[in-house]
Write a structure and sequence with these properties.
mainly alpha; rod-shaped
């Protein structure tokens, strides 16, 4: 009876073991951002936020410099990126 069990067909094996090997998930593949890039972006964020002070004084006089909105959008983008990278 033991021989009867050995006569059952066996599943085919993959010719290339790497095809069936467990692949790391995406979070493990993503490298951390370069610390120099983070420092550069933090410096840009600081400079942009400091440049808003005169713009806000102009707003008090009912004048809005045309690049103020773009500065605010860039500040938001930089802060989200930094928060995301540092929060990992």
């Amino acid at each position: 009876m033991a021989q009867a069990r050995n006569n059952w067909p066996h599943p085919l094996e993959a010719a290339d073991d790497s095809a069936t090997a467990a692949k790391p998930t995406a979070p493990h593949l993503k490298a951390r951002a370069d610390p120099l890039d983070l420092q550069r972006e933090a410096k840009e964020l600081l400079e942009l936020s400091q440049s808003l002070q005169p713009d806000m004084e102009s707003v008090n006089h009912r004048i809005l410099p045309k690049d103020t909105i773009e500065k605010l959008k860039r500040i938001e983008k930089l802060s989200k990126r930094l928060r995301g990278e540092l929060g990992k």
